[in-house]
Automatic annotation (TrEMBL):
Protein known as: Beta-lactamase family protein
Species the sequence originates in: Streptomyces marianii
Domain DUF7586: 353-437
Lineage, broadest ranks: Bacteria, Bacillati, Actinomycetota, Actinomycetes, Kitasatosporales
Secretion signal span: none
Gene3D superfamilies tied to this protein: DD-peptidase/beta-lactamase superfamily (3.40.710.10)
Domain of life: Bacteria
Length: 460
């Protein structure tokens, strides 16, 4: 959807700048950049502090840490969509001798393979990757801590394995695949594995004094697919647009949505957070946000998208700790969505009518529960409860005349029309559930049958 606006209201921009200023001041960051995109287009950016000698802007590079994982995940999904692998395949189908080859690709993507969070000492983020030249140096002697598929346990080492998987299947270095298959098609020319001027330097800020110390910026070696990248607020806003709409040159909208669907169980008590396939999913300010956070010594970063509002926000800072980019980015999204809510889609009549589809519309009953069914774009349909709570879903038309569920309880299930011998539509079958025009219609094939006496009263 193309935005009808060139930019944001001045009052909205002032509120955004205030939030960035608060994040920089309270987080005690040498510099902090915030940016907002709407419908895939950068509409605002603001900064506070100094990066090197200059005021940073949306073109200043910061290290983005674990946001790199989302890029790696996109490359894996590309391989799946090309038929080069299946997400349910065990890793050792493509990489032998790892010692963790029974883990599936999907489990590695969703941090549910049970692998350790970090590589063995010394701390990989502050030491050269050359200290871990072999995979065994990354995984250590006890790479698996939990049963696979049973719990979410964030694993940096798992994304090292995914980077090696990409290299094994493509027969090219991870960095080269990233550049040619993702960064160049999306026009992300200011995203790189090494810093390119203008860029910020990383700093540690003393917790009890307003003084700083430089942090090392190490090449992570084999750990690069988990956290190597440098990027800018402008480039990440382009990436955010891709994470909302997809881009057929890189990954389809359906596959991007799949990445943002919860794939790993949440930690007990953390029901406002989940993890998909390389994407974090959170609830903030009453909104569902999808994206990723990141940190490496000297830097913190976050990107959130709100697909419903078409708004994305990026926050980058050059301090090891203190700034809370995830909270600040969520607030930037909220400020725009509240002050300038998205216009509803323009209603327009369908270009043509299909009488067979029109016959489907209206009220249907599952037992005694009333549902409405309406037509949507591209011969799709939507089923929704008419009152109270119920199981609603959207369905996409299939070539065989049935519909496949897209979301909710009926995701992946088949909806089909059942006609009588005279061609009359009798009922709908949805995954064995029978929907009839009247509650327990005796003319339909209601499981268990319909009592011959029909509806009756009960004497008091």
């Amino acid at each position: 959807m193309t935005s009808p606006f060139e930019g944001l209201l001045r009052s909205t921009e002032r509120a955004l700048l205030h939030r960035v200023a608060v994040a920089q001041s309270e987080g005690r960051a040498p510099s902090l950049v915030g940016a907002v995109a709407r419908d895939g287009r950068l509409v605002w950016s603001g900064a506070r502090g100094r990066a090197e000698a200059d005021m940073p802007d949306a073109d200043t590079q910061y290290r983005i840490g674990s946001l790199t994982k989302t890029f790696t995940a996109v490359l894996v999904l590309r391989l799946r969509d090309e038929g080069m692998l299946d997400l349910n395949d065990p890793l050792d189908k493509y990489l032998s001798g790892t010692g963790v080859g029974e883990s599936t690709i999907a489990q590695l993507l969703s941090h549910s393979a049970g692998l350790a969070a970090e590589s063995p000492a010394p701390w990989w983020e502050r030491t050269p990757g050359a200290l871990r030249p072999e995979l065994a140096d990354v995984l250590g002697e006890q790479p698996v801590l939990h049963p696979a598929g049973r719990r979410y346990h964030y694993s940096n080492t798992g994304y090292t394995l995914l980077g090696l998987l990409i290299e094994a299947v493509r027969r090219k270095p991870w960095e080269e695949v990233l550049r040619s298959e993702l960064l160049e098609p999306l026009g992300m020319h200011r995203t790189s594995c090494d810093p390119q001027a203008p860029h910020a330097s990383g700093w540690a800020v003393h917790p009890w004094a307003d003084v700083v110390m430089p942090e090392p910026a190490e090449d992570l070696g084999l750990m690069a697919p988990a956290g190597q990248l440098w990027s800018t607020a402008a480039d990440l806003c382009r990436f955010a647009g891709f994470l909302v709409e997809g881009d057929e040159r890189v990954l389809s909208a359906d596959s991007v949505r799949e990445m943002g669907t919860a794939s790993a169980p949440s930690e007990p008590g953390d029901w406002d957070s989940a993890y998909g396939l390389g994407l974090q999913i959170v609830r903030r300010n009453g909104r569902t946000l999808i994206g990723h956070s990141g940190s490496l010594p000297g830097f913190v970063a976050c990107l959130w998208t709100d697909a419903e509002e078409g708004v994305a926000a990026v926050v980058l800072a050059n301090a090891t700790s203190g700034p809370l980019p995830a909270a600040a980015a969520a607030d930037l999204v909220h400020i725009v969505a509240e002050a300038e809510p998205r216009l509803p889609e323009l209603w327009r009549p369908m270009p043509e009518v299909d009488e067979a589809l029109l016959e489907l519309t209206g009220a249907w009953y599952w037992g005694t529960a009333a549902f409405g069914l309406k037509l949507v774009a591209d011969r799709g349909v939507e089923l929704y409860p008419l009152s109270g709570n119920g199981r609603g879903s959207r369905f996409r038309a299939r070539p065989d005349g049935t519909w496949g569920g897209l979301d909710g309880y009926f995701a992946g299930e088949t909806l089909r029309m059942v006609r009588g011998s005279d061609g009359h539509l009798v009922h709908l079958d949805l995954g064995s559930f029978v929907f009839t025009r009247e509650p327990y219609d005796p003319a339909a094939e209601v499981p268990g049958g319909v009592d011959e006496g029909g509806w009756r009263g009960l004497p008091l």
